[in-house]
From TrEMBL:
Pathway: Cofactor biosynthesis; (R)-pantothenate biosynthesis; (R)-pantothenate from (R)-pantoate and beta-alanine: step 1/1. Its EC number is 6.3.2.1. It comes from the Eukaryota. This is Pantoate--beta-alanine ligase. The lineage of its organism: Eukaryota, Fungi, Dikarya, Ascomycota, Pezizomycotina. GO terms for molecular function: ATP binding; pantoate-beta-alanine ligase activity. Coiled coil: none annotated. CDD domains: PanC. GO terms for biological process: pantothenate biosynthetic process. InterPro entries: Pantoate_ligase, Pantoate_ligase_C, Rossmann-like_a/b/a_fold. The keyword Nucleotide-binding applies.
Length: 412
């Protein structure tokens, strides 16, 4: 994790994962060559309908029945068995494989992670799966953006760019787009807190902040990531810093279950004009709420400013953030219903960089994490012809964070 903790050096070895069995064997050192030689095996991969598949015309089959993205060499894999069949030759050839897990609705932040993965690995697998286990029963699963055709077009275009860039070690080799039946072969256990089933829980970090408001969220994240890691068996996985608590949970998952995986965290990608963190959920905002959605980032920047001025106590740092939030609220309350934007603050946190526990004072030798979450409420009264955003502009939960660098630390 670039800002919160340095990823431990990992012994590179091969891991063959099967249900309830983990077998390890040390492998030879990976060659430093940048060769992209690919050993491929041929098999017919049956098409499985998936919630993420928005169009039956989004893929093409090459001779021999191998499904690929249109006009592209990128494999489209829909089953665990097809991924393992694809993976095995690269394991034997000592070619490194990276995984970039996504839920689709791809944006520049995802593409940045894929580019980095291609620089550092022979093969990149991008997973596209909207995981129902990380949505609460009252959350936005049904309205979550489904943009398969757009996602495919972006990946095909990016892969061509990577192929033309001689500085890359690899490129996008496969997209894993499973169905929920494939990911939960025993049946989906449900979204309730007391659901019965096979879950992975990482506590106490998964119970804090986001986990307090969304009690099944990190359980769902940890469970699906364990599944994806077992299926793809990557040497490296790539996540964005915007979901900073998620990166801490994933690092703990990898450490505690002794998985031979390096967790790489890429910086938060932001709108160049106003700094809003890129998120798949931004499409819900519409024009009016989008203009005020930067309130959280502005609040965190104000708090960071206090830290940079030498303030170390919690009260002094967070007071600056609270002042920004209250100022925007007062400004909006003075407007009419056809103009104003309403929002609620869930939390603004100052936490330890390794545990996400709240701290009263920042240790300058270790730094800290400023983070927050707000809910942008639906527009009260729309103006004629106003763009309310995707799905009519429902309530949108936005999160963001800023790393308080240790003294002498270098921001990535």
């Amino acid at each position: 994790m670039p800002h919160t903790a340095n990823a431990a050096a990992l012994i590179r070895h091969t891991v063959l994962l099967r249900p309830a069995i983990i077998t390890t064997a040390f492998s030879k050192t990976f060659p430093t060559t940048t060769s992209r030689a690919v050993s491929r095996s041929c098999t017919f991969i049956p098409k499985v309908t998936s919630r993420t598949m928005a169009s039956s015309c989004s893929s093409s089959s090459s001779k021999g029945g191998l499904e690929k993205l249109p006009s592209s060499p990128v494999r489209l894999l829909r089953t665990t068995s097809s991924v393992r069949l694809w993976r095995r030759p690269h394991l034997l050839d000592h070619r490194t494989v990276a995984l970039v897990p996504t839920m689709g609705a791809l944006h520049s932040g995802h593409l940045s992670l894929i580019r980095r993965a291609a620089r550092e690995n022979h093969h990149v697998v991008v997973s596209i799966y909207v995981n129902p286990a990380q949505f609460g029963i009252s959350e936005d699963l049904d309205s979550y953006p489904q943009t398969w055709d757009s996602d495919v077009a972006q990946l095909v275009k990016l892969d061509r760019e990577l192929a033309d860039d001689g500085d890359n070690l690899g490129r996008i080799s496969a997209v894993f787009a499973p169905s929920t039946k494939e990911m939960y072969p025993g049946g989906f256990p449900g979204q309730e807190v007391d659901s019965k089933g096979s879950f992975v829980t990482i506590t106490p970090v998964g119970e804090l902040l986001e986990g307090r408001t969304r009690p099944t969220f990190f359980r769902g994240v940890a469970t699906v990531c364990m599944k994806l890691f077992n299926v793809v068996q990557p040497e490296r996985v790539y996540f964005g810093q915007k979901d900073v608590q998620q990166t801490v949970v994933i690092k703990r998952l990898v450490r505690d279950f002794m998985m031979p995986i390096e967790v790489v965290v890429g910086r938060t990608e932001r709108d160049e004009k106003d700094g809003l963190a890129l998120s798949s959920r931004n499409v819900y905002l519409g024009e009016r709420r989008r203009q005020k959605a930067t309130v959280l980032y502005r609040a965190l920047k104000a708090a960071e400013g206090e830290y940079k001025r030498g303030v170390r106590k919690r009260g002094g740092i967070l007071r600056a953030a609270e002042g920004v939030v209250e100022g925007v609220k007062r400004e909006e309350e003075g407007k009419g219903v056809e103009e104003r934007v309403r929002f609620e603050v869930d939390y603004i946190s100052l936490a330890d960089p390794d545990t996400m526990e709240e701290i009263e004072e920042v240790d300058p030798a270790r730094g800290g994490i400023l983070s927050g979450a707000i809910k942008m409420l639906p527009v009260e009264k729309a103006r004629e012809g106003e763009d309310l955003g995707h799905s009519g502009g429902p309530a949108v939960r936005l999160i963001d964070n800023i790393i308080l660098e240790p003294e002498g630390g270098k921001e990535e």
